[in-house]
Design goal:
Blueprint: E1 2-7, H1 13-30, E2 46-52, E3 55-63, E4 72-79, H2 88-104, E5 109-114, H3 118-122, E6 127-135, E7 138-145
C-alpha cells in the first residue's frame, strides 16, 4: 500500500470524495451511526491515507496540539471492511504516529477510541485514561500515548 500525507488544501477533489466515501461507508453505514461527519475540522487536519489499486482503503486525520485535544491527536481511523485482514490498520497507525512526530515535533498523542478497539490501540502504546463515555451513541474511551 502507498501512503500519502496532505493538508486539506493539498487534497484533490477525487481524494476528498474518496475520503468522505470511506468514512461514510464505515462510520455511518457499517456502524449504523447517524452523526455529522463533515465537521469543519478537516480543514485544520493533516490527512493520512493509503492507496491500493487506485482507491483509498485506509485513512486517518491528525491534529497538532490544541486543535482537537491538548495533545496532538489522531481521529477518523478507518480501513475498508474487505481490507482489514491485511493489517492495514496497524500500518496507518504507524504512519500517523510518525507523521505527528515529523509534522508537529511532539510525542504525546490523545485519541477518542471506540472501546472495542482498546487492545488494537494498546498495541500502539496507547493507555486508557478515565472512564468509558458515549460519543455518537457508541462507547468510547480516551487513550493517551506518551
Amino acid at each position: 500500500m502507498n501512503f500519502i500525507i496532505k493538508s486539506f488544501q493539498e487534497l484533490t477533489i477525487i481524494e476528498l470524495y474518496q475520503i468522505l466515501q470511506i468514512r461514510s461507508e464505515v462510520f455511518v453505514v457499517e456502524q449504523d451511526c447517524v452523526y455529522q461527519d463533515v465537521d469543519f475540522k478537516d480543514q485544520k487536519a493533516i490527512h493520512v491515507f493509503g492507496y491500493k489499486n487506485d482507491k483509498i482503503i485506509a485513512y486517518t486525520r491528525i491534529f497538532k496540539p490544541g486543535d482537537y485535544f491538548k495533545n496532538a491527536s489522531i481521529g477518523r481511523v478507518v480501513v475498508a471492511k474487505n481490507e482489514r485482514k491485511f493489517g492495514y490498520g496497524h500500518q496507518i497507525m504507524i504512519t500517523s504516529i510518525t507523521a505527528i512526530k515529523n509534522y508537529f515535533k511532539v510525542d504525546k498523542i490523545t485519541i477518542s477510541a471506540q472501546k472495542y478497539l482498546k487492545k488494537f490501540y494498546e498495541s500502539h502504546q496507547f493507555k486508557q485514561i478515565g472512564e468509558e463515555y458515549l460519543e455518537d451513541g457508541i462507547p468510547h474511551i480516551r487513550m493517551d500515548r506518551d
